[in-house]
Specification:
This protein has 391 residues and is of the alpha+beta class. Helix content is 32%, strand content 21%. It is built from 9 helices and 17 strands. The strands form 4 sheets. The protein has a 7-stranded mixed sheet with strand order 2-1-12-11-8-7-5. The longest helix has 23 residues. The two termini are 21 Å apart.
């Protein structure tokens, strides 16, 4: 099973470098303090994403303590789900770009560890920075997904839909000098959100790579970015303080070219807000729209994890993308009608039905197939992908 190095920096304030409870990473295996934050029930990083991963989680893989398992399908899934996909622009264009940037940045090297590609190693510094940032976001979304966080969205996309400072979110003046963070994860059913700033570092040390000694400084700046947001408008609800503020930096280790992900996760308290079903339904439609558009004309289905998905290839790639067929039924009529008339919203189901059904499917969860070429996100987005030979 491929892995990437995933760890806290020892001694970070408000972080637990080791989780020793049953079912979590064992002593000596750094693990994230992400318990009781994701969704309503919370989850620890115990991925078990395919049948071959022990149910006990990372601590049950003693030869690779401190590493997180991944599949190529799961990384593709994360890269696709964080897309901006502006309305009116074919989503496959951006999807191709996001898959290509990841493909250029990493591959599974001998020993099953995620490593920079020879392509990345030969690019100039500016190009390395771009691809490293994209890797930082992809690894953050993947890690958040297997932990249980749902519905990732770039803050810029959220602001475009719900308003900028003072409307879609409010600012903390104590961190006015910091930049805004990257990603907000939403659990609109619970009325909560989590803010994540993802960094990527591929240069900085002689010969390429980024030294571990510089990670603390990057994480400190990233945490300040998450603190800049005092509250975020929950779709269908109210301005709400995030219940988690998380920073990460994906870096290339200069010694061996492997990708490492370091995370800071200060503890936060949860809040719950009641929401408006109309606003929540619009949020769900916005999230699923690009994926439904990519599979809209397909009549091909795939059964995975006991659920049927409508699937189609992402044009120009070898990746198959799919959507839970039950969710497709909720939105297919609206997307078809929008194509014909230019209307902005028409799901073919009432707002209450959309919210109740989607929240039911997410609460029930998805069983990961016993096939490492398949991965299902917490929101019911499926990808099928095999890592291509780069040589």
């Amino acid at each position: 099973m491929p892995h990437f190095n995933y760890q806290f920096v020892a001694g970070r304030p408000n972080c637990l470098p080791v989780l020793a409870a049953a079912g979590m990473a064992g002593p000596g295996d750094p693990a994230p303090r992400l318990t009781a934050l994701a969704n309503s029930a919370g989850a620890a990083l115990v991925p078990n994403i395919v049948g071959g991963i022990p149910a006990a989680g990372l601590g049950a893989i003693p030869a690779l303590g401190g590493c997180a398992p991944y599949t190529w399908a799961a990384l593709n899934n994360a890269a696709l789900r964080i897309g901006l996909y502006p309305p009116g622009v074919h989503p496959a264009y951006e999807a191709n770009w996001r898959l290509a940037t990841m493909r250029m940045a990493c591959y599974t090297a001998a020993g099953g560890l995620l490593t920079r590609t020879p392509i990345l190693a030969t690019l100039d510094a500016g190009e390395k920075r771009l691809l490293s940032y994209c890797m930082g976001v992809t690894l953050a979304v993947y890690t958040a997904g297997v932990t249980g966080f749902t519905f990732p969205r770039h803050l810029s996309r959220h602001a475009a839909a719900y308003g900028a400072a003072g409307v879609g979110y409010t600012l903390n003046g104590a961190f006015a000098a910091a930049n805004l963070p990257d990603i907000v994860f939403f659990d609109v059913a619970a009325g909560t959100c989590q803010v994540w700033e993802a960094k990527g570092r591929g240069v900085g040390a002689p010969g390429g790579g980024f030294p571990v000694a510089s990670v603390n400084g990057v994480l400190d700046g990233a945490i300040d970015q998450t603190r800049k947001l005092a509250s975020v408008l929950i779709p269908g609800g109210a301005l709400t303080a995030p219940n988690a503020r998380i920073a990460s930096v994906a870096r290339i280790n200069p010694a061996d070219g492997r990708w490492h992900l370091h995370v800071a996760d200060p503890a936060q308290k949860r809040r719950r807000q009641e929401g408006d079903p109309v606003g929540k339904a619009q949020f769900y439609e916005e999230f699923y729209r690009p994926f439904v558009e990519m599979i809209l004309d397909s009549r091909n289905t795939l059964d995975a994890g006991g659920q049927q998905f409508v699937v189609a290839p992402v044009p120009g790639s070898q990746t198959l993308v799919g959507v839970d067929a039950r969710i497709v039924d909720l939105f297919r009529q609206g997307v078809n009608r929008r194509r014909r008339t230019g209307e902005t919203s028409n799901t073919g189901a009432t707002s209450d039905e959309v919210c109740d059904r989607i929240e039911q499917y997410i609460a029930e969860g998805y069983t990961q197939p016993d096939d490492d070429t398949l991965y299902i996100s917490p929101e019911g987005i499926l990808t099928q992908a095999e890592e291509e030979d780069i040589f």
